[in-house]
């Protein structure tokens, strides 16, 4: 049986695919009986779709593979702690276990900002394991956002230069 780090490394490979598309680098996989049945990465910018999160895309694929919406024996591996929307899908699809890498202090709903996945008021709770390959998962996000800020700064500087040239013309 493979361990959590093994599967998280595969989720990180999915995150790198998102990064190559200039998407926020988040990757997810669904494992059923020690077999990967779904893989996905963020596609919000590519698809211009607010719900194209890695977790939702992976859950959808897993449901298609298994022919059911109940993923009661599945484990979801995701590089960033699920947001409220993704946590709702996890609860509704009855995913048994969620393993995530980096914590999300702004939107994490698996224990950081709030804990929807283990709230006993819902009819389903998921086991949660956090911080698996946390440095690697957080590092890819940090590098992505640093580069994004630098690109935006360079674009603003170029735009300002063009404006000054136009004024001086």
From TrEMBL:
Cofactor binding description: Binds 1 zinc ion per subunit.
Amino-acid positions noted as binding Zn(2+) in the UniProt annotation, renumbered to this chain: 53, 83, 86
GO terms, biological process: tRNA wobble adenosine to inosine editing
Catalytic reactions of this protein: adenosine(34) in tRNA + H2O + H(+) = inosine(34) in tRNA + NH4(+)
UniProt KW keywords: Hydrolase, Metal-binding, tRNA processing, Zinc
Residue numbers annotated as active site: 55 (proton donor)
The protein's enzyme class: hydrolase
Domain CMP/dCMP-type deaminase: 2-127
UniProt GO MF annotations: tRNA-specific adenosine-34 deaminase activity; zinc ion binding
Superkingdom assignment: Bacteria
Pfam family, one: MafB19-deam
Cofactor(s) required, per the database record: Zn(2+)
Enzyme nomenclature, EC number: 3.5.4.33
InterPro entries in UniProt: APOBEC/CMP_deaminase_Zn-bd, CMP_dCMP_dom, Cytidine_deaminase-like, MafB19-deam, tRNA_aden_deaminase
Oligomeric form and interacting partners: Homodimer.
Function: Catalyzes the deamination of adenosine to inosine at the wobble position 34 of tRNA(Arg2).
Family recorded in the similarity comment: Belongs to the cytidine and deoxycytidylate deaminase family. ADAT2 subfamily.
Name the UniProt record assigns to this protein: tRNA-specific adenosine deaminase
Species of origin: Peribacillus asahii
